[in-house]
């Protein structure tokens, strides 16, 4: 059985988070079960972009602080790293409040750079991941529970996409992002290359709606932990009330027969699961209902069955960040407005994810409102 532990944490009050983390890890043997003295332990946080903690975009600094202190108490050397979607690592760490925690605790902020090629063993034959991630003695995955416009939910498995360095992420979106099932398969193959020893989910304040950066904070008041990221994601989705048919990563994991994908093999400890469940998260716009359709129908109906990004003119300041972030280069700034090439657009919504001003909206395909009634 895969064990996923659940613990209440009503707020980010420092002593409360510290006690909650200790209780959370107790059924798993405590931090000492994962960290040995002298080991370099990488905390892979979610540092998507430079937003303050109350926006619920990044892993909360008090969760990072609590895990750092537990690692240090076990004798480990705590490192914190990620590859932000926009902005330099130091700037994002400062804006999110994590840099102050790193300085206060004596931990190290590590840049995800120097990509190292690793051979794949599935659909994709090679990956290049951050050297710091591959070289760490132990990895603790620290995702934020959020909705996601492309994958419906981002949590344990999706957080590991941050081990792909910088602009290489856009290349993977271009290679696999037009097919959400293929993209989910790619995420799982990255996870399998170097599984983290432990995952701790920040779901004290989660995000619902148009996540992972444009949604609304959602108070959940929980921390989750486990050794299998797929199993952690299955329980996180159950708590958030997200339907299985919309969980691309979990569906792909079941199709591959991965450990942790079968709900019958997962047991929870700590807070009983019925008490942990919350009213279902408000989900992102349904952006793709083409899965299962033959290719010739997908091509004909794509415009009607998918949502697409569009500008909010009064918010857009034409900074060009969305155009630079767009993997297929389907966005340009012309004559003081954004122009979208929807034939080239792969509907990955990287533009919305990285827009610093929330100046991009979603326009639904003509048939989506009708189809939503039957989903």
TrEMBL record:
Cross-referenced PANTHER family: 4FE-4S FERREDOXIN-TYPE DOMAIN-CONTAINING PROTEIN (PTHR24960:SF76), PHOTOSYSTEM I IRON-SULFUR CENTER-RELATED (PTHR24960)
UniProt-recorded name of the protein: DUF362 domain-containing protein
Keyword Metal-binding recorded: yes
Domain of life: Bacteria
Keyword entries, A-Z: 4Fe-4S, Iron, Iron-sulfur, Metal-binding
Residues in 4Fe-4S ferredoxin-type domain copies: 307-336, 337-365
């Amino acid at each position: 059985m895969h064990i996923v532990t659940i613990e209440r944490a009503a707020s980010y009050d420092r002593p409360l988070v510290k006690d909650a983390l200790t209780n959370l890890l107790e059924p798993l043997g405590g931090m000492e079960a994962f960290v040995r003295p002298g080991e370099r332990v990488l905390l892979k946080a979610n540092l998507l972009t430079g937003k303050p903690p109350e926006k619920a975009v990044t892993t909360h600094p008090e969760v990072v602080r609590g895990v750092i202190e537990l690692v240090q108490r076990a004798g480990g050397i705590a490192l914190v790293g990620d590859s932000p979607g926009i902005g330099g690592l130091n700037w994002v760490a400062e804006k999110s409040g994590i840099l102050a925690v790193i300085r206060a605790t004596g931990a190290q902020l590590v840049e995800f750079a120097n990509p190292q090629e690793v051979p794949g063993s599935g659909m994709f034959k090679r990956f290049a991941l951050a050297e710091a991630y591959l070289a760490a003695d132990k990895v603790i995955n620290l995702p934020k529970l959020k909705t996601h416009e492309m994958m419906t939910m981002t949590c344990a498995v999706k957080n590991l996409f941050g081990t792909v360095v910088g602009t290489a992420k856009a290349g993977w979106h271009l290679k696999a992002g037009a097919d959400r099932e293929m993209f989910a398969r790619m995420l799982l193959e990255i996870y399998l290359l170097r599984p983290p020893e432990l995952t701790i989910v920040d779901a004290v304040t989660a995000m619902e709606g148009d996540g992972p950066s444009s949604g609304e904070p959602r108070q959940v008041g929980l921390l989750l932990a486990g050794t299998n990221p797929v199993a952690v994601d299955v329980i996180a989705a159950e708590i958030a009330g997200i339907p299985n048919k919309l969980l691309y990563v979990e569906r792909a994991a079941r199709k591959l027969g991965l450990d942790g994908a079968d709900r019958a093999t997962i047991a929870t400890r700590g807070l009983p699961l019925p008490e942990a469940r919350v009213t279902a998260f408000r989900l992102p716009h349904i952006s793709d209902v083409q899965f299962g359709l033959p290719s010739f129908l997908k091509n004909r109906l794509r415009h009607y069955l998918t949502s697409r990004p569009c500008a909010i003119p009064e918010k857009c300041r034409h900074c060009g960040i969305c155009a630079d972030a767009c993997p297929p280069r389907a966005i340009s700034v012309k004559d003081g407005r954004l122009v979208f090439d929807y034939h080239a657009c792969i509907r990955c919504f990287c533009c919305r994810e990285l827009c610093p001003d929330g100046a991009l909206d979603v326009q639904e395909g003509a048939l989506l409102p009708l189809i939503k009634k039957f989903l």
